[in-house]
């Protein structure tokens, strides 16, 4: 299991890149939160290169029937516990843990419906 990831273009913000990658790789669209879950350094096996990744939460609003990488990737919905078990990378597990902590904190403070959204043009 992998989270959508990739680079961003010169003419887009990092949040716009996150949304584009999610549409391309997972076929979902929604609201990207402005506040990062975190930044991680990881090594690409395919390119033997070090990268810095930025992880944003996405409030999914729509699942697309067709998406650019549908023939190479599949989409599967699962619980956080299931996702954590099948995560291939430590930094993805850490991102899930941070998301759970953030959502739990929001619930404790009565902010379940508040999402710090970014203005994507």
TrEMBL record:
Residues 1-100 form the Nudix hydrolase domain. It holds the Pfam family NUDIX. CDD domains: NUDIX_DIPP2_like_Nudt4 (cd04666). Its cofactor is Mg(2+). InterPro entries: DDP-like_NUDIX, NUDIX_hydrolase-like_dom_sf, NUDIX_hydrolase_CS, NUDIX_hydrolase_dom. Keywords: Hydrolase, Magnesium, Metal-binding. This is Nudix hydrolase domain-containing protein. It comes from Citrus sinensis (Sweet orange). The lineage of its organism: Eukaryota, Viridiplantae, Streptophyta, Embryophyta, Tracheophyta.
